[in-house]
């Protein structure tokens, strides 16, 4: 099981509390985890990735094992600690403003 932590606004949108656990078939990549997340919580479609490009929304960042993986290719394997459930994939709302 893959562990995923969502920012507050996405937890509210999905109607969940705390950490999520998802079953991911095949290779554990950003794309496969987000596909499983959107399949389990269809209301999140378009909130994390753009509908047309499937690219990450600009004000969201992805972290795995304390490393920013936001700009890694979507099909790159996630670290083993995330793939085996020891560490969560963090989806963080970026801070912006001026």
Can you characterise this structure?
The protein is of the alpha+beta class. The protein has one domain (7-93): Roll (Ubiquitin-like (UB roll)). Helices cover 22% and strands 19% of the residues. A five-stranded mixed beta sheet has the order 2-1-5-3-4, covered by helices on one side. The model has no long low-confidence stretch (mean pLDDT 94).
Please write out the topology.
Layout: E1 2-5, H1 8-14, E2 20-22, H2 30-40, E3 60-64, E4 67-68, H3 80-83, E5 89-93
Parallel strand pairs: 1-5
Antiparallel strand pairs: 1-2, 3-4, 3-5
Key terms for this structure?
single chain, 98 residues, alpha+beta, Ubiquitin-like (UB roll), five-stranded mixed beta sheet, 5 strands
Helix content: 10-25%
Helical element count?
A: 3
Largest beta sheet, briefly? 5 strands, mixed
The order of strands across the largest sheet is 2-1-5-3-4
Secondary structure tally: strands = 5
What's the gyration radius in Å?
13 Å
The overall pLDDT, averaged over residues, is 94
CATH topology: Ubiquitin-like (UB roll)
Output the helix-strand order: EHEHEEHE
CATH superfamily: Beta-grasp domain
Examine the secondary-structure arrangement and name the CATH architecture. Answer: Roll
Q: Can you tell me the overall shape?
A: globular
Percent range for β-strand residues? 15-25%
What is the first-to-last residue Cα distance? 39 Å
SS-based class: alpha+beta
Q: What's the structural domain tally? A: 1
Please give the CATH class.
Answer: Alpha Beta
**Weakly predicted, low-confidence segments:** none
């Amino acid at each position: 099981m893959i562990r995923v932590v969502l920012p507050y606004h996405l937890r509210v949108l999905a109607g969940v509390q705390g950490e999520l656990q998802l079953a991911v078939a095949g290779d554990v990549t950003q794309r496969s985890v987000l596909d499983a997340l959107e399949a389990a919580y269809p209301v999140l479609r378009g909130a994390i990735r753009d509908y047309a490009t499937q690219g990450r929304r600009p004000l969201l960042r992805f972290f795995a094992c304390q490393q920013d993986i936001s700009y890694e290719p979507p099909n790159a394997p996630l670290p083993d600690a995330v793939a085996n459930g020891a560490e969560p994939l963090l989806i963080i709302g970026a801070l912006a403003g001026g």
